[in-house]
Amino acid sequence: MSLWQCPVCGEILTEEGRTLFCGKRHTFDRARSGYVNLLPANKKRTKDPGDNVLMVQARRSFLTKDYYKPMSDALCRIVCGYMPDKGTLLDAGSGEGYYTRNVCNALTEAGKTADVYGIDIAKCAVDAAAKSCKAADFAVASIFHLPVVNESCDVLMSLFAPYCGEEFSRVLKSHGKMILVIPDENHLMGLKKAVYDKPYANQVQNYELDGFRFLGAEKIEGEIFMDNSDDIQNLFSMTPYYYKTGREEHLRLEALKELRTETAFQILQYEKEV
Ligand SMILES: [Zn+2]
């Protein structure tokens, strides 16, 4: 049984052929690549919400070169540690599926039987995820209205995505684990120094979150070296600074032929309070 629920009425969805439907006959067809669009048209604020095709391509191109592999490896180890032998994982904000895929592989290698689901609001990202990770089930949906049955997930992971505590708590089982990956203070400082006159460190939030017990934070620090302009531009387009940057800074960025920069992440771990 899938954990998808109808985004219109909230009833559990049943699947027949390539169509998901609820008891009120709201129906949702799977796309050719396998994902299902569970974003009701009236919940879209724009025609194509989320990252656009170019941003998805940039991120996929950067991530598949494994610059962030040390963090991904740590994430996989942490998820495998929390996952029961037979369990359910939701990747809330799965993007083009790089981390979902790595975690699926790690769970299989660890001998775990896991049902893995991913959601993202960007249809082009979900399409890419569905093509590259056949082991998981992907849906187009909003993090703020997860089309996911109450208390159905053992583990929820969310990387660089908006946080929605109420929804995350609702879909987690009692004592379910939530794993958040956030940029640490000095993440990409080398990149920021190359682009900005006054680079600022990232602000790291307070660890306390309502409804969750904090289990711990693991810091993953490293350095990456990029020897070509494409990778540098792709990385920059993945950051929140991309759209806030003026023309002069963009020109500086385009002139960079190589760059060495710090990477710094925190993998925060929580347990749902009953
Ligand atoms: Zn329905």
Q: Secondary structure elements and their pairing?
A:
Blueprint lengths: L13 E3 L2 E3 L5 E3 L6 E2 L15 H11 L5 H14 L3 E7 L5 H12 L3 E8 L2 H10 L3 E5 L12 E7 L5 H7 E12 L5 H7 L16 E15 L2 H9 L9 H9 L3 E14 L2
Helix pairs in contact: 1-7, 2-3
The structure holds zinc ion.
Briefly, what is this?
By secondary structure, the chain is α/β, with parallel strands linked by helices. It is 29% helix and 29% strand.
Describe the protein.
- The chain is 29% helix and 29% strand.
- With 274 residues, it is α/β, with parallel strands linked by helices.
- The chain has one domain: Rossmann fold, CATH 3.40.50.
- The strands form 2 sheets. The chain has an 8-stranded mixed sheet, with helices on both faces. It has a 3-stranded antiparallel sheet with strand order 1-2-3, with no helix packed on it.
- The longest helix is centred in the first third of the chain and has 14 residues.
- The radius of gyration is 19 Å and the shape is globular.
- The model has no long low-confidence stretch (mean pLDDT 94).
- The structure holds zinc ion (ZN).
- Zinc ion binds next to loops.
Total number of helices:
8
Number of domains: 1
Residue windows where pLDDT falls under 50 for at least 5 positions: none
Could you say which structural class the secondary elements and strand pairing correspond to? alpha/beta
Keywords:
Rossmann fold; single chain; 8-stranded mixed beta sheet; 274 residues; 29% helix; alpha/beta; globular
